[in-house]
């Protein structure tokens, strides 16, 4: 998919293209691993933003929440929320559609982008949703 997007010759910064690749991978992986079924990916350009939509057969809408420090997964939506210009999830007749948009420049760049990526890999205790003791 990213090869096709690059082939369109859109005025997207390299960081924005890398974000599209990373976030697409996260959403597609989530769709397939949570539903054990194929998903549909649609990519569109409105002249200002690239939009990627992933539709799957699951009906439960995701929510970005805290990160469990002991979990080996669960950071995908954190990355989507942090790196996308905008994102959302909505019901679809076949299940649900999760989408994100990336503008011509990355939503976050430089040190701020690095911080987001590091926090996704090694979250701090602030990112953990409290549980009952």
Descriptive terms for the model:
single chain; 133 residues; alpha+beta; Heat Shock Protein 90; 4-stranded antiparallel beta sheet; 4 helices; 36% helix; 23% strand; disordered C terminus
Overview of this protein structure:
- This protein has about 130 residues and is an alpha+beta fold.
- It has one domain: Heat Shock Protein 90, CATH 3.30.565.10.
- About 35% of the residues lie in helices and about 25% in strands.
- It contains 4 helices and 4 strands; from the N terminus they run ααββαββα.
- Strands 1-2-4-3 form a 4-stranded antiparallel beta sheet, covered by helices on one side.
- The longest helix is centred in the N-terminal third of the chain and has 22 residues, at about 15-35.
- The chain starts with a helix and ends in a 12-residue tail after the last helix.
